[in-house]
Amino acid sequence: MKPEPGQLMVDLLSAPEEAVITNPNPSFSWVINDPRQGARQTAWQIMLSASKENLENNIPDCWNSGKIPSDQSVNIPYSGKELQPLNTYWWKVRTWDSNNKEGKWSKPQKFYTGEFNPSGLKWPGESRWVNRTDGTLPEYVFEDRHAIRYHDIPPVSVVKNPAGNFFITFGKAAFATLKLTLEGADDNDTILIHLGEKLTDDQQVDKQPGGSISYRKVVMGLKKGVSDYMVELPRQYSRYPNSQVLPEHMPEVASFRYAEIEGWNGDIKPAQVKQHALLYRFDDKASYFKSSDNNLNQVWDLCKHTLKVTPFMGLYLDGTRERMPYEADAYIQQISHYCVDREFAVQRYSTAFLIFNPSWPTEWYLHIVLMAWADYMVTGDPRELEKYYEELKKKTLLALAREDGLISTRTGLVTEEFLQSIHYNGDSFRDIVDWPQGTPANEEVSRSGFGSVRIEGETDRYVFSDINTVVNAFHYRNLVFMNKIASILGKAEDEIFFRERADLVKKSFNEKLLDKNTGLYLDGEGVNHSALHANIFPVAFGLASRENYSQLGEFFKSKGMACSPYGAPYLFDALYEVGEQDYALELLRSESDRSWMNMIRFGTTITSEAWDIKYKKNLGWNHAWGASPVYVITRKIFGIEPLEPAFKKILIKPQPGKLKDAEIKSPTIMGTIYAKFENDPKKAFQLKLVIPANTTAKLMLPRPHEKNCTLKINGKTAEYRMEENFVTIDNVEAGKYDIKVD
């Protein structure tokens, strides 16, 4: 008998008991835990009851689906008796295999319903705090997303520093406060507590860390007979328009790795101190990576920890300085988060929030459709596309187009009516390209009170013009995805419109923004400068011709990391697209001052906002847009991507370059993908692979030499075809494989 289904989800929540669900018709998903070759589901049955006892006795008082012939195992809509708000339910599922053999029932899963059609929302789709009473204790949870919880983390060490203070080191930074157990205090005793991300050479918390690197100082009073204390940080209120504030029932937190206690005359042992960290739900065991390159391993660990601790408010946002969500930041965090955890709710909620609470740059708006499409491809759930379809259309910025399809924010079309249509209420809507910006190539100097200076910025001296190449590359990508979205939703007229408009924009883009002599894209119409950004986005978004890949690849290599951590994932997309995987690997493992190893070297354990404080003076040490290497390792080095929504069909296209060996465990909604390769670029490529049940895969494997290759799968010679110079096999069934190309 094969194992029962596992990893159950209700409305894409893996722990629905940690939330309330406001949807009266939620969806149900599960993973087929069948390790056999070719394992697939042919039918399913769901039972749902208002009591666990009834469910365990197979009395489904709400829904008994009966046996449903189907291989669908995700996003099954509820079809039973009307669910009641503010109630508790239990469900379970069993499946039939390809031999029509009935499997065991899953373990029951509990979920709560909240208010259906809630009123008083600040914006459509808002998820509020709910004080839910379960048994005897009240508990605060979110609507439709996992709750945030405090976790006590022990220190790595507690020592006396040269200043005579207790210096406490935690393994990594987190958004937290400090818990202490102190014995022998008298009334009116006070201690001074320093919390920070950065330390000095003499083992003190850096009290002047610079930029936006976190430091907090708290005077804490002690009382006789009281031994347990928690540091009360002042509530953080940021001045930014969409900044988030923790509710009153939750202690305030700050990002810190180090604590220094001044003025305590007793002793402090490691067991007496805890980092009281606020975390969104995260499964540390969902993903794994290890390779022959130690730098790459360290970068993975840095980024994975970043993705664990930064959604600490149940939303993607800038952690220390602003606590405000931004679309580009959220998109990079979203696609990276998918690679390390089987989590979908915080990503989806962040998208909904940003639709109605946007930031200001042009290109940031053009990330919303990318976020919605990424959600659909990993979940296979089209409900959000349907719900926000009209808003997605506006976020393409079609209203700013001229006759040739290209768009501009500088030709008088950015009216009050337009800004209201995209929910923008500020006065700074403009193109950004990258951040900080700096001096364009056509402006030799920037005047200041100290004479003529050049501000380098992160835009590679990009020249801004009315028709901006980066903006229009994003616009094209939006149109391509909207064509697909319209097709999925059965909107035939829109499907045709978006396809034709995408074709028009691509034609105009390559006619007016490509330098035919160099094969490079210019920064804009009428501009004679080609910045890195003007070229990576057309390649990453499918606008560039393969005929120009050679010169584009050489151009990329001549530029290095001439972008901020924001631009990095797009640079890597472009490098792997043009076949420069060796150079991409160099950048990933680089130890230059524009690298992830530099972040590790200067002391952060969460990715920083910029490569170094010299590149951004208000640098923060907790910015998740720097976490994209986990995306690059998963989606490019291992080449694991969904070919069909919800990973029903998987692409596995490793591009290891000179990396000798690596191993990964990658979570998906259908189950875990495991891959391990050994790579000798001149002799052979070997891959151990586990494809989850109920899926198929297309394999595109590196060709180790120019001669005819031999492909062996589980020891037997197999047929293949060549595609893009990769050894390609289609429709590989679920199961375990040992593959060799030599």
Gross geometry: globular
Number of domains: 4
Which segments are poorly predicted (pLDDT under 50) over 5 or more consecutive residues? 446-451
Distance between the termini: 38 Å
CATH architecture level-2 label of the largest domain: Alpha/alpha barrel
Question: Structural class of the secondary elements?
Answer: alpha+beta
* Strand composition percent: 25-35%
Helix percentage range: 10-25%
Rg over C-alpha atoms, rounded to the nearest angstrom: 27 Å
| Biggest beta sheet summary | 10 strands, mixed
Provide a descriptive summary of the structure in words.
By secondary structure, the chain is an alpha+beta fold. It has four domains: 138 residues, Sandwich (Immunoglobulin-like); 133 residues, Galactose-binding domain-like (Jelly Rolls), CATH 2.60.120.260; 169 residues, Glycosyltransferase, CATH 1.50.10.10; 97 residues, Sandwich (Maltose phosphorylase, domain 3), CATH 2.60.420. It has 17 helices and 33 strands. Strand 13 and strand 14 form a beta hairpin. Helix 3 runs antiparallel to helix 4, helix 4 packs antiparallel against helix 6 and helix 10 packs antiparallel against helix 11. The longest helix has 21 residues. It starts with 5 loop residues before the first strand and ends with a strand.
